[in-house]
């Protein structure tokens, strides 16, 4: 990751398209269960940031592509780093659902 990658704006709409086009990928919502119930991207799995140690319930294989989002992009950035420290090798922070323009499920 280069210095300027840190400033690169993440595009959740593009990230969701990449998730849909990636075989066996898992879309992970790291918001709270209440936030998740209020509206989430269809097909996403809710693994709150505080319970990220339970990620193996949705992703046992550490090579599986993970696409992570939250509300604004801050928690998903944290989660991405934590997942990489846990040994996951294909983790993508796609940002915050606040900027998502697609269909939301309740």
Give me the secondary-structure topology.
Layout: H1 12-21, E1 26-29, H2 33-38, E2 45-46, E3 66-70, H3 74-85, E4 91-96
Parallel strand pairs: 1-2, 1-3, 3-4
What's the gist of this structure?
The chain has a domain at 59-100 and 102-106: Oxidized Rhodanese, domain 1.
Write structural notes for this entry:
This protein is of the alpha/beta class. It has a domain at 59-100 and 102-106: Oxidized Rhodanese, domain 1 (3-Layer(aba) Sandwich), CATH 3.40.250.10. Helix content is 26%, strand content 16%. The chain has three helices and four strands; from the N terminus they run αβαββαβ. The protein has helices at residues 12-21, 33-38, 74-85, and strands at residues 26-29, 45-46, 66-70, 91-96. Strands 2-1-3-4 form a four-stranded parallel beta sheet, sandwiched between helices. The termini are far apart. The model is unreliable at 1-6 (pLDDT under 50).
Arithmetic mean pLDDT: 93
CATH class of the domain at 59-100 and 102-106: Alpha Beta
CATH architecture verdict of the domain at 59-100 and 102-106: 3-Layer(aba) Sandwich
| Terminal CA distance | 35 Å
Radius of gyration: 13 Å
Query: Which class do the helix and strand fractions yield?
Result: alpha/beta
- H/E element order: HEHEEHE
Helix share bin: 25-40%
The total strand number stands at: 4
CATH superfamily name of the domain at 59-100 and 102-106?
Rhodanese-like domain
Which outline best applies? Answer: globular
The largest sheet has its strands arranged as 2-1-3-4
CATH topology of the domain at 59-100 and 102-106: Oxidized Rhodanese, domain 1
Tally of contiguous helical segments: 3
Low-confidence stretches: 1-6
């Amino acid at each position: 990751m280069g210095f300027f990658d840190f400033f690169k704006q993440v595009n959740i709409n593009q990230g969701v398209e990449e998730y849909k086009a990636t075989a066996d990928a898992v879309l992970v919502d790291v918001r709270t269960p209440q936030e998740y119930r209020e509206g989430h991207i269809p097909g996403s799995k809710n693994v709150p940031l505080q319970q990220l140690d339970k990620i193996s319930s949705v992703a046992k294989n550490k090579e599986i592509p993970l696409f992570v989002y939250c509300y604004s992009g801050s928690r998903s950035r944290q989660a991405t780093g934590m997942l990489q420290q846990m040994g996951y090798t294909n983790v993508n922070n796609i940002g915050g659902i606040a900027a998502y323009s697609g269909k939301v499920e309740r």
